[in-house]
Amino acid sequence: MKLVGFGCSFTYGSELIDPELEKYNYSFWDRHHENTPYRQRHVWLGQLADQLGYEYVNYAEPSCSNYAISQIFYDFMYGYLKDTSDPIIVCVGWTHADRMSWWDKEWVHDGFIRYNSESRFKNSFKDWLAYPERNKRTTDHAKMFVNSVCAINNIPIIQFDAIRNINARDYPNFFMKGTAMDLCLEREGERLGRNFLASGGHPNEQGHEYYVKLLLEWAKAKKIV
After folding, report:
1. Total of domains in the chain
2. What predicted TM-score, i.e. pTM, was given to this entire model?
3. C-alpha distances in angstroms, 59 versus 13, 66, 134?
4. Which CATH number fits the domain that encloses residue 149?
5. Domain interval for residue 161
6. How far apart are CA 109 and CA 100, in angstroms?
């Protein structure tokens, strides 16, 4: 069995930095290439796979929008359904509804153009923010698409809102419906007197570990794993 993950920085593993890299001076903002094995192993997807003894692959990208999540999922599924029948579980950490992405030989997410006056997508981003109701529908469409494809092909799905979001529909396999990973870890950290969040607001190693504990109990109860 393999977990196939999609999402934003909360599933990518932003702020999970291998402490062994601290002694080196890398210019990359997240030390991507050197840090990737540590980041993927400690993010919730990697920790969940380790708990279950499954393989995993992580397609999440920092600042990814729900629209892009659905398109990256489509690209994966197009090849998967054509070339293989190996069992998988789709895992999605949905992001904030006001995010958007543009395709330009690769995905360009608004988190990287929001403050970049040179970006050729700057005006498109301003237009996007001007229609919040449309933003909500785009998130609803993305969730409907991913859930429909999984249902049609009998593929289990584990999903939740990583960042406070908008749930327009009642999905039966949605973890902690009505709240989000960031709010859960903030609340539980205060209750337990522990720190589950890194300085930039992403979950730290302990935050991902704690969330997996809750997620795994739910997934077993739902008979997804």
Report:
1. 1
2. 0.91
3. 11, 13, 26
4. 3.40.50
5. 2-221
6. 6
